[in-house]
Design goal:
The chain is α/β, with parallel strands linked by helices. It has four helices and nine strands, in the order βαβββββαββααβ.
Length: about 170
């Protein structure tokens, strides 16, 4: 196939067949699986090495593959049931959202609002311009983020609205 974009949004899908990503391969640039009933994404998504935009918003995701395509620049996971720790299908060990993010060095837009995050996800790619974490249960901004000017240099939008944050470090944005 020579598909550059697949849009399966606004259906009632409960799973994505592994074979879909195996067949489509490296040419796919954009995948939209938003507004379905997906609880997980197959590990074979890592085969989409050319993927730059992944939209899985408004599903029932509780886990993600630990390896997502590393060339992603846009990742929309809003309105799911993701937490900072989730079980991975390929291993019995719990995986951290931070482990997944560490493998996305070119990410520019990360949308994680309306999930069940208890902590600010780190590490944040130095390329990130837009970070949406509103409507979670985050309690504080980690010093690792507040003190990291490289992370904040490109950041144009930070949405941490409607969380459980009690204090903002005055160093934020300086």
């Amino acid at each position: 196939f020579n598909l550059a974009k697949i849009d399966i949004s606004k259906n009632k899908l409960t799973y994505i067949p592994d074979e879909l990503f195996q067949i489509v391969g490296a040419n796919l640039i954009e995948f939209n699986g938003g507004f379905n009933r997906l609880a997980f994404v197959p590990e074979s998504i890592s085969l989409l090495t050319g993927l730059k935009q992944l939209n899985l918003n408004n599903n029932k995701l509780t886990r993600l593959p630990i390896i997502l395509p590393s060339r992603l620049t846009y990742l929309d996971l809003r309105c799911n049931k993701l937490s900072n720790t989730f079980s991975s299908k390929s291993t019995s060990k719990d995986k951290l959202l931070s482990d997944m993010l560490a493998n996305l060095p070119t990410l520019e837009v990360l949308l994680l609002g309306y999930n069940q995050l208890l902590a600010f996800p780190m590490p944040i790619a130095a390329t990130l311009r837009h970070l949406e974490l509103g409507n979670n249960q985050i309690r504080y901004l980690p010093d690792e983020f507040v003190n990291n000017k490289q992370c904040q240099n490109k950041l144009e939008l930070l949405d941490i609205s409607n969380n459980n944050i009690k204090n903002i470090n005055p160093k934020l944005g300086n």
